[in-house]
Amino acid sequence: MARPSFSFSRSVCGWLLRKIHESLGDPRVRLSLARDEEFPPAATDILATVKIADRRTLATLALSPEMGFGEGYSKGRIEVQGDLVPFLEAVLASMRDVNAIGWYSKLISRWLDRVQTNSLRGSVRNIRHHYDLTADFYKLWLDSQLVYTCAYFPEPFTILEQAQVAKMDHVCRKIWLQPGERVVEAGCGWGALALHMARHYGVRVRAFNISKEQILLARERAKQQGLEHQVEFIEDDYRNISGRYDAFVSVGMLEHIGTENYENLGRVIHRTIGDAGRGILHFIGRNFPYSFSPWIRKRIFPGACAPCLAQAMAVFEPCNFSVLDVENLRSHYIRTLEVWLDRFERSWDNVVKMLGTEAARAWRLYLAGSVAAFRVGNLQLFQVVFAGAKCQRVPWTRAYLYSEKQVEEKDPEWIRAMS
């Protein structure tokens, strides 16, 4: 069937360009349609120019700026003349100021809520869409251990490999792991953190993940490192976690389960660590409730949601978990994403060979957009440490986080009051 053509007049095209620009909050960018029209026409203080290939693309951009731009850029129908990240920063900042969510974007978001539900079956489909891409793709731009979460940079120019090790130590110290303890990890990626906990902290780990490709590689790495008897990688959903443990760890999974499942996650945690255990949740979040990008949910992360802290409390409050520490590592994720994007661009030719040009452009936009979203404050990175009401292993100060060697906390010596 022939695709219908769009025969807008130049005046209509100019009007659409102006309306799109206004709906974005009038950012410092120029919109240009082939040789027909551009808006704003005489501006000089411009960060970038968006070249729109044809009137069909203009129509989809007018209907939903975010979805239209994402699809148009991925397919090469939209080009950005200028640095992509500062351009996206300017647009995201101006969109936030005008709260630019149109009716069509809301409709798409509701439809995605229905088709990308995080049920047992739906979660497998959603996760495998993203994480079951070949590990060779991720090896092009992640660190050597394939840690696909925010790194921790003790110094701004720490290299990524060291920063990821520092992040894993940061997590382990926050829940003050001790040799011989049992730890359960929900959503373990390619296994780096589980193996790190076992090797450097002497704990036994059971790690759950529903990505078949990640589990297979994690098991292979455990065998190579001689840790297969200390770390068990299980291909299963977090809802099926069983057994009793001293600590619960989840890094980068909360974003994938949906706010409607937070109370259930809390019950899963409670049945594993009871009232005496402790744990940590590390997740991308927001300052207030807001829908996740429909384009990213369609192309990159099906079923994703970035909760605010109030929403995340649904995990802890029903089970009487005490929140002990909250840290925002937003600046560290900005640096992590900048390094990932740089490595991705350096590997561009190989990415195209693996994924094709359209998917490669989609991933470039996703990474660049993530840098921009964290820079302007649309996204945050939270680490929340919690414990059961009967947990007695709570450090006296935060000094344990930054000392080179962990020291067992002792009860403070009681001193008689003097009057």
Describe the model.
The structure is a single chain. With 419 residues, this protein is of the alpha/beta class. It is 45% helix and 15% strand. The strands form two sheets. It has a seven-stranded mixed β-sheet, sandwiched between helices. A four-stranded mixed β-sheet has the order 2-1-3-4. Strand 6, helix 10 and strand 7 form a beta-alpha-beta unit. The protein is elongated, with a radius of gyration of 24 Å.
> Order of strands across the widest beta sheet?
7-6-5-8-9-11-10
Biggest sheet character: 7 strands, mixed
Helix content estimate: 40-55%
What global shape is seen? elongated
Tell me the fraction of residues in β-strands, as a range.
5-15%
Number of helices: 16
SSE pattern, N- to C-terminal: HEEEHHEHHHHHEHEHEEHEHHEHHHE
